[in-house]
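Sequence in, structure out. Go.
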Amino acid sequence: MMTKCLLKESERADVLLDPTTAAAHLHFASCPSCAQSSAQQSGLWLALDAWKVPEVSASFNRTLYEKIEAAIASPWYERWAVAIRQTFAQPSFAVAAVALFVVGGFVLDHPGGVVTPLWSAQVRSLHPGAVQVSSTEAEQVERTLEDLEMLHQFDAGSDEKENTQKSM
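Output:
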């Protein structure tokens, strides 16, 4: 059973950074958890030291420059198509497309409309045969009636002027 190391939680945890010190060896003797971690870390360092990096082939640079030249020489629409293909292949694009599809479906299914106040619905229920007129339509009718009244008064005034001029 592994026990929790008190040294890792304390301010003296820096002792564990260098496993070759006497303080670290003393702690490893009393803490099996830290001793195991140190052994695993040492094994990892030895494996990394033993690892041989494979050499790069002699034609690597030539092949790389040929690919770069081919990409530069390709027409702009091919480079654009490759960029678009790479963009569409991203998972984030797929998520965005699905989200757009869902939102579009919601908007089409729930078209925005004029919100009818509650009192308007009550008035309609009291007078089912009544014609529905909006406030802007009512204002337009009122202005038109005022204009007609003004024209009627103007006509009446011009008729009086004609009558007075004829009598003179």
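Check: Residues 6-50 form one domain. The helical segments are 6-9, 22-30, 32-50, 60-73, 76-88, 91-109, 118-126, 135-167.
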